[in-house]
Specification:
The protein has helices at 4-19, 25-38, 45-51, 69-75, 94-102, 110-123, 125-131, 144-157, 161-171, 177-186, 202-209, 212-221, 236-242, 246-253, 270-276, 280-287, 304-310, 314-321, 338-345, 348-355, 372-378, 382-389, and strands spanning 43-44, 80-83, 88-91. It is mainly α. Among the domains are: 1-108, no CATH class; 109-199, no CATH class. The protein has a 3-stranded antiparallel β-sheet with strand order 1-3-2. Helix 17 packs parallel to helix 19 (338-345). It is elongated.
Length: 399
């Protein structure tokens, strides 16, 4: 093989040999290639084997269908390999990934198929029973974590009518506790280790994943409280705002009974969730509602502006500062202002925006007597130190 064209010819010929295999070998080989090339993260050996054992439409999961890894390697004609150190299954070379992606006709709607497989697995009776147990051991269901976290990601990319019906079947009551915990840990919330977290409702889950059709179908079916607090005390609107899902936010806001300013257990509103993650368009949508207070503090006295400043979201900071009832110098419970947060975290652009305001005190200390200048200097943000020193009101803290 001396050039890319010849390499592509080799891959193409090998794929054709896989398709031409007798019996179940062709299906196993092509499905394994689909999963390994289109999965959202590298898959472990046991995950791939369980994925290939799922029979669409079945309410059972037959462990007798689980193929061995050696069988899969043979069915894939040498195009996959096992990374023994990571216990992960990989394509033999990154150029094979490029070849498969450059030939989308090799797999027919892979993400739709993968969503259907994940949903079938989650809807199967053995998995439902396992995932609703008080303290389930998941060693017998190694595919559960992947399905719980990524079925919605695949469905967002491609969703068939059958996949939609499977999703509605899964979400008509609640997302299981185990699946909820997997999903939230993946999002960095680790609620299982902090306190007893209630599971998502179906509407919470569909809003989290931004699957518009499923959210709409669940609203139409009814039976869900659109303002129900779930994990973190978040409503479905809060989750959609948190993840920046503009169309789902609009859909939920069109429901007459929705409360667009409902606080979670810490006093944070949907606007807060959007602002802290820098979702400018969602912030604008929420600010269009009269019921939304743009300066509403949480239980620690922090506001959407202070969190946007702390995270360096310049666009959101500008949008919030355009609201006449937003105090740009509002301190939290520890007397830390939006400028203090921005200076401490090194967000030069936000510092510049705030320093343009006459109603921002650039030398305002927190409850420890630390000014924005002190905080910027302490964390090594030299350019921000220079900005603050250029303000006549700013004087070095002597602590």
């Amino acid at each position: 093989m001396t050039n890319g064209l010849e390499l592509g010819d080799v891959y193409g010929a090998t794929v054709e040999r896989i398709k031409a295999q007798d019996g179940d070998k062709s299906r196993l080989g092509m499905t394994a290639l689909m999963w390994i090339s289109h999965a959202e993260r590298p898959l472990r050996v046991d995950e791939v084997c369980h994925a290939l054992a799922v029979q669409l439409g079945s309410t059972d999961f037959d462990v007798g269908n689980i193929p061995s890894m050696s069988t899969l390697v043979n069915c894939c004609q040498g195009l996959i390999t096992v990374d023994k150190e990571a216990s992960a299954v990989r394509l033999i070379h990154f150029t094979l990934q490029e070849y498969l992606f450059s030939h989308p006709d090799i797999f027919c709607k892979p993400h739709s198929t993968m969503a259907e497989i994940c949903l079938t697995y989650l809807n199967s009776e053995p998995i439902k029973t396992l995932s609703t147990a008080p303290s389930p051991g998941t060693r017998s269901a190694p595919f559960l974590e992947y399905c719980s976290v990524y079925w919605g990601v695949h469905a967002k990319k491609e969703l068939s009518d059958y996949g939609r019906s499977l999703a509605l079947e899964l979400l008509k009551k609640h997302y299981s506790r185990t699946s909820t915990e997997f999903l939230l840990e993946h999002a960095g919330l680790y609620l299982r280790r902090v306190y007893n977290c209630p599971p998502f409702s179906g509407l919470h889950c569909a809003s989290f994943f931004r699957i518009f059709d499923v959210v709409a179908a669940l609203i139409e079916v009814g039976g869900s409280d659109i303002n129900q607090r779930g994990c973190c005390g978040y409503t479905p609107l809060s989750w959609a705002a948190y993840n920046g899902h503009e169309e789902v936010v609009k859909l939920l806001l069109r429901q007459g009974e929705v409360n667009p300013d409902k606080e979670d257990h810490s006093g944070r509103t949907p606007l807060f969730c959007a602002a802290q993650n820098g979702h400018e368009r969602v912030v604008k949508i929420l600010l269009g509602r009269e019921e939304v207070d743009p300066d509403n503090p949480d239980d620690w006295g922090e506001t959407p502006l202070s969190d946007a400043a702390a995270n360096g979201h310049e666009g959101v900071v500008r949008i919030l500062l355009e609201q006449g009832d937003v105090n740009p110098d509002k301190p939290n419970s520890f007397d830390q202002t939006p400028l203090s947060f921005a200076a401490q975290n090194g967000h030069e652009g936000v510092v510049k925006i705030l320093l343009q305001r006459e109603d921002v005190n650039p030398d305002k200390p927190n409850d420890l007597g630390q000014t924005p200048l002190h905080l910027a200097s302490r964390h090594g943000h030299e350019r921000i130190v220079a900005l603050l020193q250029s303000c006549k009101a700013a004087t070095p803290n002597t602590i």
